[in-house]
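U., I forgot to send this yesterday:
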Amino acid sequence: MYEVKEFRKPSYDIDPIYVKRWSPRSFLNKEVPEDILYSVFEAARWAPSAANIQPWRFITARNEEDRMKFLSFIYEGNIAWCSNAPVLVAVVSKTDSTFTGGHNPSHAFDTGAAWGYLALEAARKGLVSHAMGGFDRDKAKEVLTIPENYDVHAIIALGYQGEKESLLEQFQEREKPSDRNEVKDFMSEGTFQEK
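Result:
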């Protein structure tokens, strides 16, 4: 296992959990206890939400039958590593709201915040999470019987980190924490500036 600090060094003072969280592809074949799993979703529960609409929904797959459903719409390149994860999660948001009288313009924004809280709590609990966009969204909606007024944003692999040697060779070199752009590269004052 890597020491995250070999690859990630914050430029400003932040809590270490933000640097500790990264997205491995190697998972142990070890079940996540229900109390730990539910605590991860408890963190998502407390994410900020415009008008407190809380549009996020999470569909989990923890048994073989449900996991096979998920694997039917995940792209092959991701199946090569995510099939070992003990938990797969579909991140879904409700696109409309009675509060707004129609379309909820912040459904994806709020759901992204909930996913972020989930990922940080997973790291705090000693789990790893890896969100992926490589899946067939239409098929996911069909297989998981998701209504039309919901969007599927990502599939998360969740569990305990395994050794990189258990991955196919094509993934082993990438199995390390990535760095991030500096704050000055994405922050501007007063007006937008492409950097």
